[in-house]
TrEMBL record:
It holds the Pfam family Peptidase_A24. The keyword Transmembrane applies. It comes from Arthrobacter crystallopoietes BAB-32. This is Type IV leader peptidase. The chain crosses the membrane at residues 14-35, 47-66, 72-89, 120-141, 148-169. One of its GO terms (molecular function) is aspartic-type endopeptidase activity. Residues 26-136 form the Prepilin type IV endopeptidase peptidase domain. Belongs to the peptidase A24 family. The keyword Membrane applies. It comes from the Bacteria. GO terms for cellular component: plasma membrane. Keywords: Membrane, Transmembrane, Transmembrane helix. GO terms for biological process: signal peptide processing. InterPro entries: Prepilin_IV_endopep_pep (IPR000045), Prepilin_peptidase/N-MTase (IPR050882).
Amino acid sequence: MVLELARLWPAHPLAFWALLAAMAYLLVVGARLSWIDLHTHRLPNRIVFPAYAVAGVLLGTAALAAGEPARLLGLAAGGAVLWVFYFAVRFVYPAGMGFGDVKLAGVLGLYLGYVGWALLLWATFAAFLLGGLYGVLLMLLRRASLKTAIPFGPFMIAGTVLVLAMPAAG
């Protein structure tokens, strides 16, 4: 996303500002949702649902202002594909993932789909890797067992932000 922003600035200032606003929104909402999930094991609908509209409008504005309407399909497909993937995981093993994670996946998929399919895969991998490492660390520290519930939203957000922050993500 860094290179994407750099590319947009001189040629399409409106697209630059819309994309920058979308990224700032992701950081603010992501931090808030992470904090809530870590403390309550919940991802509130009152925060997640509006994020679909805000992200869609900001990313859609960036795509149209840059003259790249094909990105609209990418962001919509990314949101749908990631939502379906997390829904399938939830369906197969309901105790392992909450439905809040499924709803959050759709929002994160909008961002990742805007940039490209490869990043959608890398961010998903990063989320599961980070969550797994955290779980192993907790077990090594004897603060958790195999049955301990771990909030997954923060790792989904961290994986997405990490992948989007990489310079090659543009």
